[in-house]
Amino acid sequence: MSSREYLSGLFSLDGRIALVTGGSSGIGRGIALALGRAGASVVIVARREAELAETVSELTGHGCRAAWVSADLATREGVRTAAERAAGIFGEPDILVNSAGINLRPPMSELGEDVWDTTMAVNLDAPFLLGQRFGPGMAQRGFGRIIHITSQQAHRAFVQSGAYGVSKGALESLARSQAEAWSPHGVTCNTLVPGFVMTPLNARLSADPAKVAALADRTLTGRNGLAEDFAGAAVFLASAASGYVTGQTLFVDGGFSVH
Ligand SMILES: NC(=O)c1ccc[n+]([C@@H]2O[C@H](COP(=O)([O-])OP(=O)(O)OC[C@H]3O[C@@H](n4cnc5c(N)ncnc54)[C@H](OP(=O)(O)O)[C@@H]3O)[C@@H](O)[C@H]2O)c1
């Protein structure tokens, strides 16, 4: 067996179908591109059509099978509709990546019910509902990969964690509950934990060079994250190689969390 065949047996996503929420921007976009280039047919879900179309065109430019669904994951009806439309394109997904997320950051004393509800809806309810929709089918077919994107704020409070940190902490618990339920049937459920990644989510923080430098100093690698830093970890967690890894949180943060 050649090294290429060996690596392909471990990591190739040929023939797999992936659904990536938030796949039109930032970390989700980096992951969608990686899964597609590793062989998966990819459907990305977000609201803005121009960004969705641009990412799909980059994927197809690499020779990948890709499509998009525009939907608002802040409502349960929106999630349900998105799931059916996405599954109608290439078929039921083998890989589900929940990267769509919002971070509204009001000071805790001003955190109202509206921000709490929207944060939970996008960051926690949508991953839960998509898991309920696709997890049992993955288990029935004997293979599945669920990957959530959480945050340092699932583990520690800083830069106004508020409702956001709560939603991400719960998302890590959700991964463990899903792993308990479906891993006996070949479905692994894990979370990737970014550090500070320069994406539109952080536009305000990223505009302050002193804060950006201070955050880079908190890593061991000496720099902040890039969307492409998630490619290898996502392909690993989506592939056959990670079949014995489940319920885990993998920090892709340049060492931010360990000192
Ligand atoms: N960047 C960081 O430093 C960092 C750190 C820790 C964790 N994270 C997590 O990583 C994930 C991705 O973040 P990012 O930095 O890549 O952010 P981003 O560039 O702002 O991307 C967020 C994605 O989610 C989609 N989205 C947001 N609200 C949505 C809704 N209501 N319905 C459907 N789609 C929605 C956005 O598209 P539309 O706006 O077009 O809908 C976009 O595709 C998030 O879960 C975030 O919490 C990021």
From TrEMBL:
Family annotation (InterPro entries): KR_dom, NAD(P)-bd_dom_sf, Sc_DH/Rdtase_CS, SDR, SDR_fam
PROSITE patterns from the UniProt entry: ADH_SHORT
Domain Ketoreductase: 16-185
Source species, domain of life: Bacteria
PANTHER family: 3-OXOACYL-(ACYL-CARRIER-PROTEIN) REDUCTASE, 3-OXOACYL-[ACYL-CARRIER-PROTEIN] REDUCTASE FABG
Family as reported in the entry's similarity comment: Belongs to the short-chain dehydrogenases/reductases (SDR) family.
Protein name (Swiss-Prot/TrEMBL): SDR family oxidoreductase
Organism of provenance: Streptomyces orinoci
